[in-house]
Design a protein that fits this description.
450 residues; alpha/beta; eight-stranded parallel β-barrel; 21 helices; 8 strands
Length: 450
């Protein structure tokens, strides 16, 4: 891809997920779509992650209609989505037929680039999604979830890159969801990946610990090709580095992005006004530089949602205790990277440990499923004590978790019946049965958005 640095803009997905609890509505995206489409980004992240669930659950919007509306309004720019491998856009593994149908429909609805990851870095959980997206003729970013632990070495990440390249992905993405990737560590990992794997490298990070801008510069020197950034009104803190700052920093160098700062400034002014509309979902924690993220390892996209959950439970004062408990739970569970859904599992168990006052006196259901192996193979052995409390005398599985699942699409179609107006509705129900059904009922009553 040469020396020019390309940018992926996250303002329509990860930026508001990280800072505004994923609450931005489609109606606030469409008025600025023509200008976003004119920028010349390598891609726009428009879908995936928590946006699917949140659209149905809280905004009473159809996520499929959002995608189609944005695609119609921005025909020139690649659309990118974040796909959680066998978890799709949910929080557990789904059968292969649901994964395949979802990827095929997303491709038809307008997604050009699928960033596919697995929370455990278990490539078995990425295989079906990768193969389906490649068959659809789309660009696939095979994703390495970066984390720090006694078992996550540079060689570990390079070996994972080799496995993804062998699966046929066109781009390697290094995903630093908690903003922990330090500048010199980034240089070493990216240099070794680039020397070994002849594919473009796309770096994703967050500013949670204040490292990301420096890390991006070192990553450029190491050979990174594409960076994730967010327009300044929704940048920094738990979000990505500011788009305008990198355009300015690289201007006149061999890495010049070629993007127009004037146009970016016009778009930024629009999003400053939009952000004010969602002030109730802001959190001081999400807006701060938090070097202690290097300890808790909580990803940017989860932080604002965790604060919202604790606030709802009238337990916001427990946040620091929960953050302190998270690395202990993570070690007990074999050092999984903290990204959806493992971040929610570790976070929920940590909160339970804090709220009960006695560690593992109660075990969250999904913690039990994790220990059983239903999310994949952990990077390191799970604590024997936690195994005993979660499983008793049961033995964990060793196969690919989805191999145990029966096809689910036809059953979902029968269950939802006439409330589903399309195949996309059937998929929404298959992924989030209760949430989707509630949305469909509201839609029938004229109480939902399109």
């Amino acid at each position: 891809m040469g020396q020019k640095i390309e940018l992926t803009e996250t303002v329509l997905r990860d930026a508001h997920q990280s800072l505004l609890a994923t609450r931005m509505r489609t109606e606030d995206m469409l008025p600025i779509a023509d200008k976003l489409d004119a920028v010349g980004y390598w891609s726009l992240e428009t879908w995936g992650g928590a946006t699917f669930d949140t659209a149905l659950r809280y905004l009473k919007e159809c996520p499929w209609e959002r995608l189609r509306s944005l695609r119609a309004a921005m025909p020139r720019t690649r659309f990118q989505m974040l796909l959680r491998g066998q978890n799709v856009v949910g929080y557990r593994n789904y059968p292969d037929d649901i994964v395949q149908c979802f990827v095929e429909r997303a491709a038809k609805a307008g997604i050009d680039v699928f960033r596919i990851f697995d929370a455990m870095n278990d490539v078995r959980n990425m295989k079906t999604a990768i193969e389906t997206a490649l068959r659809a003729g789309k660009i696939v970013e095979g994703t390495i979830c970066y984390t720090i632990s006694p078992v996550h070495s540079v060689d570990y990440f390079v070996k994972l890159g080799d496995q993804l390249a062998a699966m046929g992905v066109q781009i390697i993405c290094l995903k630093d969801m908690a903003g922990m990737l330090a500048p010199y560590a980034a240089h070493e990992i990216i240099s070794k990946l680039k020397a070994r794997i002849p594919l473009p490298l796309h770096l994703h990070s967050h500013c949670t610990a204040g490292l990301a801008p420096m890390t991006y510069m070192m990553a450029i020197e190491a050979g990174a090709d594409i960076l994730d950034t967010a327009l300044s009104p929704l940048a920094q803190g738990a979000s990505q580095p500011a788009t305008e700052a990198f355009v300015a920093a690289l201007m006149g160098t061999p890495h010049d992005t070629g993007l127009d700062l004037g146009l970016l400034g016009e778009i930024a002014q629009y999003f400053y006004a939009v952000r004010r509309k969602y002030a109730e979902f802001e959190s001081a924690v999400s807006n701060q530089i938090k070097p202690d993220a290097l300890v808790s390892q909580i990803p940017g996209g989860m932080l604002s949602n965790l604060v919202a959950q604790l606030r709802h439970a009238k337990a916001e004062d427990k946040l620091e205790a929960v953050l302190a408990e998270m690395p202990k739970v993570r070690a007990d569970l074999g050092y999984p990277p903290l990204v959806t859904p493992t971040s929610q599992i570790v976070g929920s168990q940590a909160a339970l440990n804090v709220m009960t006052g006695k560690r593992y006196s109660a075990v969250y259901t999904e913690t039990t499923n994790y220990v059983m192996g239903l999310y994949g193979e952990p990077p390191a052995p799970i604590s024997d004590e936690v195994k005993q409390k979660a499983l008793g005398n049961k033995k964990p599985i060793t196969c690919r978790p989805a191999d145990l699942l029966e096809p689910g699409l036809e059953a979902a179609r029968r269950e939802i019946g006439s409330l589903a107006r399309s195949e996309e509705d059937v998929l929404s129900y298959a992924l989030f049965p209760e949430v989707a059904k509630e949305y469909f009922i509201a839609r029938e009553a004229g109480e939902a958005r399109r």
